[in-house]
Write a structure and sequence with these properties.
The chain has four helices and 16 strands. It has 349 residues and is α+β, with helices and mostly antiparallel strands. Strands 5, 6, 7, 8, 9, 10, 11, 12, 13, 14, 15 and 16 form a twelve-stranded antiparallel beta sheet that branches. A two-stranded antiparallel ribbon has the order 1-2. The protein has a two-stranded antiparallel ribbon with strand order 3-4.
C-alpha cells in the first residue's frame, strides 16, 4: 500500500515499493544487547560495498540470453521471443531508431525501451522458475527504507525460507535489536507469525502478531507472507508488466555489469518521464544475477518537488525510499522441519 511522507515535504507522497520488503516487527525499539537468541545463524551485518546506488552510469548494449532473438520494431509487440518463435524473423534488416539499444553480438537487432523492460521480465521469470524449484534456502537480507517520511536505519536479517511443502520463513536480526526473531508458516491455522524480541527484551515471552495488522504495516512495507527472493521477483515483474502494458512514459537502459556478493550481475536503470506515469517512482536501479537471473539488489527513488539546485547524486540521496539486497544465498541448505518450528530449542520461542 502506498504510504504518505508528511515529514518530508520535498518528496513525493504515497511512497510504495516495487519490490518486496522483508518484515520487521517493531513491537519495541532499540536495545543493542550483543547476545542473540537462535544463535545458530552466523552474523554478517555488512553489505558488500562493490556497488553504489548513486554511482554515475553510461548506457551500453543489452546482451541477449542464450537462445533468444529480438523482433525488430518498437512497442510492446516488438519483444524478445524464443529462438524457435523467431526463426522467420529478418531482424538484420531492421533500422536502428535514435536512442535505441543494440543487442551485443546481434548486429542489426534493436532494443527499444519496452524491449529492454521485456528482457528484464524474461530474466526474472526464468529466475522465478529456478526459485520455485527450490525446496528451501538461506540468505542474508539487507534493507533500508523510508516509512512515514523517515529513513529507517539499515537492517540485516538472516533468513531461512521454505517453499515446499508449504511456505515458511524464519528471521533473525543481526544488528539493531540483535537477536529479534520472527517465525511464520502457512501451516499455522491462525495465520499469525510468532515474534520473539531481541536485546535486553529477549527474556520476554514470544507473542503472536497478525502479519497484516497496523503495527506490522508501520514497520515494513510488505508482510512476511511476501518475504524472500521469490516475493521480490513477483513484485518487480508485476510493476514491469504494468510498464509494458502502458507502453510509454519510461526509459530502461542497461548499465555496465558489476560484481555484487562475488556474482556477476546485469544492471539496469529505469526512469519515468513524469509523475503521470508513476505517482511515486522516479527511478529504479536493479541488479540481476547473470547466472541465476534473480534480483540481488533493487534501489528505488521517489520524486522531489524542488530538485532545481540538486545534482543527480544529491537528488538520489534525498529521494531514496528503498534499498533491498540479498547476500550469502545458499541453496544447498537441506533445512529440516524443525528450522520452521517454535519447538526448535535454539530459538527459545
Amino acid at each position: 500500500m502506498p504510504r504518505s511522507n508528511p515529514s518530508i515535504p520535498s518528496l513525493g507522497r504515497n511512497t510504495f515499493a516495487a519490490s518486496i520488503a522483508l518484515f520487521s516487527v517493531g513491537i519495541l525499539y532499540s536495545s543493542f544487547d550483543p547476545v542473540p537468541a537462535g544463535d545458530d545463524i552466523s552474523v554478517q551485518a555488512d553489505v558488500p560495498t562493490s556497488y553504489s546506488a548513486y554511482a554515475s552510469y553510461d548506457e551500453t548494449s543489452v546482451p541477449l540470453p542464450a537462445g533468444v532473438k529480438i523482433t525488430p520494431g518498437e512497442g510492446v509487440e516488438a519483444v524478445a521471443t524464443t529462438a524457435a518463435e523467431a526463426d522467420d524473423t529478418t531482424a538484420d534488416t531492421a533500422e536502428t531508431a535514435p536512442g535505441a539499444q543494440t543487442a551485443s553480438g546481434n548486429a542489426g537487432n534493436v532494443l527499444s525501451n519496452m524491449e529492454t523492460i521485456k528482457f528484464c521480465v524474461l530474466l526474472l521469470q526464468d529466475g522465478a522458475r529456478y526459485m520455485n524449484g527450490l525446496k528451501d534456502y538461506t540468505a542474508h537480507f539487507h534493507k533500508e527504507e523510508r516509512i512515514d517520511g523517515d529513513l529507517q536505519a539499515p537492517q540485516t536479517i538472516a533468513l531461512k525460507v521454505q517453499h515446499k511443502p508449504h511456505f515458511a520463513v524464519y528471521m533473525n536480526w543481526q544488528n539493531g535489536e540483535r537477536g529479534r526473531q520472527v517465525l511464520f508458516s502457512e501451516d499455522y491455522e491462525d495465520g499469525n507469525m510468532v515474534v520473539k524480541l531481541g536485546g535486553m527484551k529477549r527474556f520476554l515471552p514470544a507473542v503472536k502478531v497478525d502479519p497484516h495488522c497496523s503495527l506490522a504495516k508501520a514497520e515494513s512495507r510488505y508482510p512476511i507472507t511476501q518475504a524472500g527472493v521469490l516475493g521480490m521477483i513477483n513484485q518487480i515483474v508485476e510493476h514491469r508488466q504494468r510498464d509494458l502494458k502502458r507502453g510509454h512514459g519510461v526509459s530502461c537502459v542497461r548499465l555496465p555489469n558489476v560484481v555484487f556478493d562475488e556474482k556477476d550481475c546485469y544492471r539496469f536503470v529505469l526512469t519515468y518521464e513524469d509523475r503521470q506515469f508513476s505517482d511515486v517512482y522516479r527511478k529504479s536501479i536493479m541488479m540481476i544475477d547473470a547466472e541465476l537471473h534473480i534480483p540481488l539488489m533493487i534501489t528505488n527513488f521517489t520524486w522531489a518537488t524542488d530538485a532545481e539546485n540538486l545534482s543527480e547524486e544529491e537528488l538520489d540521496k534525498a529521494t531514496l525510499i528503498e534499498n533491498y539486497s540479498f547476500t550469502r544465498l545458499n541453496t544447498k541448505t537441506e533445512l529440516a522441519a524443525q528450522d520452521f518450528s517454535r519447538d526448535n530449542p535454539s530459538y527459545r520461542m
